[in-house]
C-alpha cells in the first residue's frame, strides 16, 4: 500500500483526462527538484484548473489567483472545486449590513442575505468602519468574514490584483507554500498596471500639455504638494467630525496612493532607474499623464516573492523571457508543455494573406483586406463567425464596405457597449451571424455553434505611438518583448472558438507578419498551435514549412 502523499491523490475530478496525470507527475517532480517556478503551458481543454487545485491540495497552504473576476466566477461555479477553497474579493464586492437598514429596498433585497453587492451602493469599501476611525460595527461583516475564512483556509482564492495588496503580517496573511497564477501570460502587464502612476489634470490646454518626461514630472511634483494639503484637510475633517463622507473617503485613498507612488518614482529616479511618461489629451481641456517604469523586475519580486515559497504559472502560452522580466532567473524555472487533445483537423489555421499589414501599409492594403473578408464571409455564409480587429478604425472600415449580402449578418461593438453588444450577439439565435469585435482576444467562450470560423486580420502588436512601447523597444530585449505581446494576443484569439474535443472551427489569418512571428519563434511556441497550420488545406501551409523570406509580400491563398 502506497502511504506516500502524491499530488495526483488530490485530483478533484472523478477521473483524469488525457495528459492530466502525466502533467501532475511532472509538477511533482519539479517541486521535488526544488524549482522555485513551474511554468505550465496547457491549451484549452487540458483542465488546468483541476491540475492547479491538485497542487493546492498537496501543499499545506496556497494562494490561487486569476487576473479577471470572470475567471474566478468559473471556478466558483465548478461543483467539483466548490469545497476546495475560500474566496475573498475587494471590499467593494460586499454589502455593508450596517448601512443596509437605512435603505428603502431593505425588506425586498436579497443581497443582504448573500452579501454580494450586485446592485447595492452600500458596500464595505465605504462602510462606517472605513469612514470613521475606531468605529465599532454592531453587525457581522461579509467582507471581514470572507477575508478571515480565506486567511484560515488551505487555499485562498482571489484576483491577482487583490493578491498584490496582500501584506504578510502577524495574525493576518502569512507567506504560503505556493502561489498559483492562472492565465498567467499577462502577469507582466498586471504588475505594470498596478505600479503605473496616472493623474488627470483639469483645465490644461492641449497645446500646453507636457512633451518631455521632465515636464510631466514637474507637473506631477506640483500636484503632490496640492494632494498633501488635501490629505491633511481630509484627515483633520475626519478627526473633527468623526468620519468622512463616502466620496471624500474614496478621494482620500486615491490621494494617498498617488503620493506614495510619487515617492517611489522619486526614489527610483535617484537610484538611476528609468521611468517613461505617456500623455493623453482628453476632451474638455483635460490631460492624463502616466509614469511607468521600464524595468519591473524589482516590482515583480516585491509583489510576488514575499507571498510564497514557490510559484505555479499556468496558461496556454507563456513567453520564456517573461520570467526574467518579473524578477526570476532562468535556472529557477521548470518548463512543462501539455499537448492538445483536440483533433488538429478540427482547428486549422488558414492563410488568406493580403501582405504585411502595418500602419504604413494599411491605406494600400485596405481594399485587399475588405475584399478577402467579404470572400471569407461568402464562403462561410451559413455559419456563425467572429472577426478580430485591432482598432475601431479598422472595424469601421470593414463595417462600411461589406457587400449587401454580408452586411445584414453583422453585429459589432463600440467602446461604450462592449459587454452589452457581445452578450446580445451571443444570444441572438441567428445561425449565420458574425460579430466584429475590437481587442476581444481574451475572456470570451465561442464554443460550438456560437462561432465556427474566425478571422484575425492583423498581428496585434503594441502601439508604437505609445511612449512606453517606444522606450521599451529601445532596450536590449525590446524586439522579443514586442513580438511576444503580439504572439500572446494571437494565441489567445486562436483559442476562443474550439473549446472541446468535438468542437470545430476554422481560423483565417490575413497578415504575413503573423507568419513571420511563427517562423521566428516556432521553437518556443506550443506545438499544438504550430501544428494547426499543417491542418490547413492551402498550398502555403501543406507541409507546415514556414519560411517568410521566400513568400512574396502580396501572395494570396485562394479560398
Quickly describe the structure.
This protein has 559 residues and is α/β, with parallel strands linked by helices.
Provide tags for this entry.
seven-stranded parallel sheet; alpha/beta; Rossmann fold; 559 residues; 20 helices; single chain
Overview of this structure, please?
Strand 7 and strand 8 form a beta hairpin. The protein folds into 3 domains: 228 residues, P-loop containing nucleotide triphosphate hydrolases (Rossmann fold, 3-Layer(aba) Sandwich), CATH 3.40.50; 98 residues, no CATH class; 207 residues, P-loop containing nucleotide triphosphate hydrolases (Rossmann fold, 3-Layer(aba) Sandwich), CATH 3.40.50.300. The chain is built from 20 helices and 16 strands. The chain is of the alpha/beta class and 559 residues long. Helix 10 packs across helix 11. The strands form 3 sheets. A 7-stranded parallel β-sheet has the order 3-4-2-5-9-1-10, sandwiched between helices. It has a 6-stranded parallel β-sheet with strand order 11-16-15-12-14-13, sandwiched between helices. A 3-stranded antiparallel β-sheet has the order 6-8-7.
